[in-house]
Specification:
CATH class of the largest domain in chain A: Alpha Beta
Number of helices of chain B: 7
Structural class of chain A: alpha/beta
CATH class of chain B: Alpha Beta
Order of helices and strands of chain B: EEEEEHEHEHEHEEEEHEHEEH
Strand order of the largest sheet of chain B: 11-10-9-12-8-1-6-7-13
CATH topology of the largest domain in chain A: Rossmann fold
Order of helices and strands of chain A: HEEEHEHEHEHEEEEEEEHEHEHEHEH
Radius of gyration of chain A: 24 Å
CATH superfamily of chain B: HUPs
Number of strands of chain B: 15
Number of helices of chain A: 10
Strand content of chain B: 25-35%
Oligomer: heterodimer
């Protein structure tokens, strides 16, 4: 057969073969994160996804961890799906410094040439990943809520929310390597740890003297007290909106949460009214939740709020306006004044 | 101190409708606005700017981005430059970075670059760190408060570790700061100032040739594959009537579904 027609597809303008940029890049990397010598839950979600992708194309998962006294976490990373762990363990790495972290990871990437590099879209990930992508002259798909593999081209497809969550865009990085993505916390399931994993942990030798950091950490503080149970992990969430009226109304929401063993949250309106902390705002720009039960009291439920709660398994909305957005979206809509319905629910629960 | 603020003009999202059931987006009203995150960046820079400091707004965009830059001038920026060329049409974030870097270098660099943390339309939140890496500057992202003294920036940023929600950091200038939009509600530019911005200022337009950019710099690394919509919202059971009855029925239904004990 005459295959010369393929030359049209594989020759550049000068008539020479197109350089296969993808050649020589292999394996999936996860830049892991730890806090207080524990791996971040968001990192575990990324590990699970990395493992799935690696199994699909038959490659290894490498986990890279930078920190101080981080070596012990090497075994944990193996347990959560890594085939190989690279640890950079130095006092100078105890706190995140963008320039330093980029230098170390970029050097490792140049050495090992991974085809895909993932990290969590955590505060650190959002700060580090774009700088690293710029250093590596590659594309980054950020805040992905879903990853897929186009097997025909061995391309990673990243899907993320745009227009405040009204739409999704899916993009790929066809040529540049590694294909990078940050994964939105809460959208990727944590894997079950393997109690006796295979794999190896290797400490990376560094010469930190060459790199200077220009960032210093002065202080860590919670400007507002954080709720006890992480909102993003709570099984039951009860939230308050402007419709609760005043602090007394908000107190009813707190009572309901307590009665159901749930966590209190709210809309931006509740934050503006001073009833909740910024960390308790549900929605775009706040927290994404995925509880089994979500009860929205006096919340009208604009699209920004709803997007933060749409992964709830069951949504109950209490609002006098049955045409409020959240009432139309809820699995169960209680039409009425929450200030009357909540006490009645508390009675019903007690009996 | 020289401060440069890259700003973005976007289609006003309130002029758009998103129909999940039809899986389509409609543009009802085609109006352009300054992206809220960019406005916050201008505001943050204005709050920081002293009498001896210069604040320059730059924007990569369509010709009508001139309006966005006039608004920046009206808010209080000292100079503005529009980066516009047909060749910029298919820019992804890496191309945008190259264009902004070329302009910033043309302006002789800066002590501080202030951007919004993430834009409201299709923002990826990448521009700040990408600019910082390309320019070799320090970076701090998601900043809700900042000040500068003797060539050092002190900033409060969201960090979100278990112990604390915020952290204070210091960065040696020059630095890129990406600000949290909600932390810097922008000042209002009064009509007279807007008129003056159009009348008394020149906004030079810099194209690909002037910026010294070639085809390779303008080739995007990301390819758009498809768009999608979240699943349509399902309507569920509705309970009306006397609060006590509503509560009873709701509690019973929830217990049946084993959602509550």
């Amino acid at each position: 057969m005459d295959f010369s027609y393929l030359d049209d597809w594989t020759e550049d303008e000068a008539g020479g073969p197109v350089e296969e940029i993808g050649e020589g890049y292999r394996n999936i990397w996860v830049v892991a994160e730890n806090s207080n010598r524990t791996l971040l839950p968001a990192t575990l979600g990324v590990m699970g996804q990395a493992r799935e992708l690696a199994d699909m194309i038959g490659v290894y998962v490498y986990a890279v961890l930078l920190g101080e006294d981080a070596e012990a976490l090497g075994q944990d990373l193996l347990a959560y799906g890594a085939d190989k762990v690279l640890i950079a363990d130095e006092p100078g790495l105890a706190e995140y410094r963008p320039g330093l972290y980029v230098q170390i990871v970029a050097d490792l990437v140049d050495q090992y040439r991974p085809e895909i590099l993932l990290m969590a879209a955590s505060p650190l990930g959002n700060d580090l990943a774009p700088r690293l992508a710029q250093r590596l002259n590659t594309g980054l798909m950020s805040h992905c809520i879903k990853l897929e593999l186009d097997m025909s081209e061995r391309l990673l497809l990243g899907t993320f929310a745009v227009f405040g969550g009204e739409m999704y865009h899916t993009v790929a990085c066809p040529q540049a390597r590694p294909q990078m993505a940050t994964l939105q916390p809460g959208y990727f399931r944590m894997p079950y740890p393997d109690t006796s994993p295979a794999g190896s942990v290797q400490t990376v030798d560094l010469d930190l003297g060459a790199v200077t950091g220009r960032l210093t950490w002065i202080d860590h503080a919670a400007s507002v007290a954080l709720p006890d149970v992480s909102l993003s992990k709570a099984k039951v969430v009860v939230s308050a909106g402007r419709g609760m009226g005043d602090a007394d109304g908000f107190a009813l929401v707190e009572q309901l949460a307590e009665a159901l063993g749930g966590v209190v949250a709210g809309s931006r309106g509740a934050f503006d009214a001073g009833w909740i902390a910024e960390e308790q705002i549900v929605g775009v720009g706040g927290v994404f939740i995925a509880p089994d039960l979500y009860i929205a009291c006096g919340v009208s439920g604009d699209i920004y709020h709803y997007f933060g709660a749409q992964d709830s398994k069951f949504v109950v909305a209490i609002n006098p306006d049955e045409h409020a957005p959240i009432m139309k979206a809820a699995n169960m809509a209680l039409v009425g004044d929450a200030r009357q319905i909540i006490p009645a629910i508390l009675d019903a629960l007690a009996n | 101190m020289k401060i440069i603020v890259p700003i973005k003009q976007i289609l006003d999202p309130s002029g758009m409708t998103f129909r999940r059931d039809k899986e389509r987006m409609f543009i009802n009203r085609e109006e352009y606005i300054v992206d809220p995150a960019s406005k916050a960046a201008i505001e943050a820079a204005l709050q920081l700017k002293g009498d001896d400091d210069t604040l320059i707004a730059i924007s990569m965009g369509l010709p009508q981005a001139d309006d966005a830059l006039r608004e920046a001038l009206a808010m209080g920026c000292d100079e503005a430059f529009l980066l516009c060329d047909n060749a910029f049409e298919n820019a992804d974030i890496t191309v945008t970075t190259s264009i902004l870097v070329a302009a910033i270098l043309k302006l002789g660099g800066a002590d501080l670059i202030v951007t919004g943390h993430q834009s409201a339309d299709t923002g990826s939140g990448q521009i700040g760190p990408r600019l910082a890496e390309a320019l070799g500057y320090a970076q701090v992202t998601d900043v809700s408060a900042m000040s500068t003294e003797d060539g050092v920036l002190q900033a409060t940023r969201r960090w979100g570790t278990a112990e604390a929600a915020y952290a204070t950091v210091e960065a040696v200038l020059p630095a890129v700061v990406a600000v949290t939009p909600e932390a810097f509600p922008p000042r209002y530019a009064h009509g007279a100032r807007i008129m003056s911005a159009y009348r008394d200022w020149d906004v030079p337009v810099w194209d690909m040739a002037y910026l010294g950019l070639d085809e390779a710099a303008l080739a995007p690394l990301l390819a758009f594959r498809r768009e999608g919509f979240p699943p349509p919202l399902e309507v569920g059971e509705r309970f009306h009537g006397d609060p006590a009855d509503v509560a009873q029925e709701a509690v019973m239904a929830l217990k049946l579904q084993k959602l509550i004990g």
